[in-house]
């Protein structure tokens, strides 16, 4: 019985180490921009309020300065919606207006994932970032809503 427990613990440890190294490799890939993550489809809309100020030059995906609200993405655990601020053609802020809220665990996961997603989006200057491990629904909804806002900001 003791040997069986030790064998099980060994298998779990090995699986955890493999998962950690795979996540590390995925994080490295996302940081280098070698791959991108497709996001889900937003299902209901919301307006945007943006200025018609300057646009970035020299970029094929120039963004208009202003604040743009993405469509609400309905997930299995509740709606997700973000707002993006563009200044000088760059993403300067991403604010979660709604995060998944069906059950306490869903709220915990969203509160954990939102700052990570915000940081990655600001670094990447795009919605093409990896999902947060353990927060797939929140990540997909966040990135989908963000892409909707960025589409509105395209000049």
Could you walk me through the main structural features you see in this protein, from its secondary elements to its overall organization?
- The protein is of the alpha+beta class and 155 residues long.
- Strands 1, 2, 3 and 4 form a 4-stranded antiparallel beta sheet that branches.
- α2 crosses α3.
- The longest helix is centred in the first third of the chain and has 31 residues.
- It starts with a helix and ends with a helix.
- About 26% of the residues have low confidence.
In short:
With about 160 residues, this protein is of the alpha+beta class. It has three helices and four strands; from the N terminus they run αββββαα.
Topology:
Elements: H1 2-32, E1 66-69, E2 73-75, E3 78-87, E4 90-98, H2 104-124, H3 136-153
Antiparallel strand pairs: 1-3, 2-3, 3-4
Helix pairs in contact: 2-3
Radius of gyration in whole Å, from Cα? 19 Å
Q: Which strand-content bin applies to the residues? A: 15-25%
**What's the mean pLDDT score?**
75
- Largest beta-sheet characterization: 4 strands, antiparallel
Low-confidence stretches: 20-60
Overall strand count: 4
What distance separates the N and C termini? Answer: 67 Å
Helix content: 40-55%
What labels would you give this structure?
155 residues, alpha+beta
């Amino acid at each position: 019985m003791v040997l069986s427990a030790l064998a099980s613990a060994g298998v779990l440890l090995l699986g955890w180490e493999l998962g950690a190294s795979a996540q590390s490799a995925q994080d490295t890939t996302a940081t280098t921009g070698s791959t991108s993550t497709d996001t889900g489809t937003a299902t209901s809309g919301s307006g945007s309020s943006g200025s018609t100020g300057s646009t970035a030059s020299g970029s094929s995906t120039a963004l208009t300065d202003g604040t743009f609200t993405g469509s609400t993405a309905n997930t299995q655990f509740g709606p997700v919606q973000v707002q993006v601020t563009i200044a000088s053609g760059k993403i300067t802020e991403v604010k979660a207006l709604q995060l998944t809220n069906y059950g306490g665990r869903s709220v915990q996961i969203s509160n954990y994932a939102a700052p990570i997603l915000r940081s990655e989006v600001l670094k990447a200057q795009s919605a093409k970032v990896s999902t947060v491990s353990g927060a797939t629904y929140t990540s997909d909804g966040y990135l989908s809503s963000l892409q909707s806002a960025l589409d509105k900001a395209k000049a």
